[in-house]
From TrEMBL:
E.C. designation(s): 4.3.3.7
CDD domains named among the record's database cross-references: DHDPS
Site location (Part of a proton relay during catalysis): T53, Y116
Name of the protein this chain belongs to: 4-hydroxy-tetrahydrodipicolinate synthase
Keywords for this protein: Amino-acid biosynthesis, Cytoplasm, Diaminopimelate biosynthesis, Lyase, Lysine biosynthesis, Schiff base
rRNA-binding keyword on record: no
Subcellular location per the Swiss-Prot or TrEMBL entry: Cytoplasm
A biological process from GO: lysine biosynthetic process via diaminopimelate
Coiled coil: none
């Protein structure tokens, strides 16, 4: 059974985009994934995104994706929303992944803008609608033009928001003006997809975060959103400012790379990366250690 949700917070408020742990040999580490999922939920996450970009979805097979969803649901599915990334640049493939995720027990779907082939807005509308029509699961859109090459325009968001199962958007557009208009007009629950903008997006109507730094600072993110929603903006701002070194350090390079390095520093499951991603160098690891320490993270 999925955790309780409301239309205002369909997946909760704090979700971590979870890495996919691998063994030293590079195979899927399901036991490690379950341990990491339990750790993140114990730390205060309302939900976890699996098989997203931070989960190295470009380099995991469809079968591995299904196995991972099933394992994480088994570990934490009664305590947290397990949202499966099913976004590709092939609508038929995304539909197949969505149906497989539902069969594996996922509570929701994350579907990113089709990348590389640069579809027009009508193509985006039809793609997202087809994925939402394929299952009974609620859908979170993922708008990240820096990776996909194409933004989801506000007018398209409004149309998509009319679909009964498209309930939320993960915003990594980096444009507070557009976010303000979209939040005001779409009716979608808005999640920050850019950790540096977590607090600013709350200020224009976002309700929570899909975070990478949640791998190391979930309690602080929980305190930030609770303070803001409780009216203590000064406390939320203080937490935001204290976390600035963490936000900076975790994105000096690709977020999967730093997340797995940070987990290794803390003795948590993560394991190696799959090419084309590569691990941090020793100097980069020391820089990450300094960044985390400056933000109050104990290593």
């Amino acid at each position: 059974m999925a955790p309780t949700s409301t239309p205002q917070t369909p997946f909760g408020r704090v979700l971590t985009a979870m890495v996919t742990p691998f063994s030293a040999a590079g195979s899927l580490d399901l036991e490690g994934a379950q341990r990491l999922a339990a750790h993140l939920v114990d730390a205060g996450n309302d939900g976890l995104i699996v098989n997203g970009t931070t989960g190295e979805s470009p380099t995991t097979s469809d079968a591995e994706k299904t196995e991972l969803v099933r394992a994480v649901v088994e570990a934490v599915g009664d305590r947290a929303h397990v949202v499966a990334g099913v976004g590709t640049n092939d609508t038929r493939h995304s539909i197949e992944l969505a149906r497989a995720a539902q069969a594996a027990g996922a509570h929701g779907l994350l579907t990113v803008t089709p990348y590389y082939n640069k579809p027009p807005q009508e193509g985006l509308y039809q793609h997202f609608t087809a994925v939402a029509d394929a299952t009974e699961l609620p859908v979170m859109l993922y708008d990240i033009p820096g990776r996909s090459g194409v933004p989801i325009n506000t007018e398209t968001m409004v149309r998509l928001g009319e679909h009964p199962r498209i309930v939320a958007n993960k915003d990594a557009k980096g444009d507070l003006g557009r976010a303000s208009w979209a939040i005001a007009t779409t009716g979608l629950a808005w999640y920050s997809g850019d950790d540096m903008l977590n607090l600013p997006l709350l200020s224009v109507g976002a309700i929570g975060f899909v975070s990478v730094v949640g791998h190391v600072v979930t309690p602080e993110l929980r305190a930030l959103v609770d303070a803001y929603s409780g009216g203590d903006v000064a406390k939320a701002t203080e937490i935001h400012q204290r976390l600035l070194p963490v936000f900076t350090g975790m994105f000096r390079t690709q977020g999967v790379i730093t997340s797995k390095a940070a987990l290794a520093l803390r003795g948590l499951p993560g394991g190696p990366l799959r090419l084309p991603l590569v691990g941090l160098t020793e100097p980069e690891t020391e820089q990450l250690r300094r960044d985390l320490a400056a933000g109050g993270v104990q290593i």
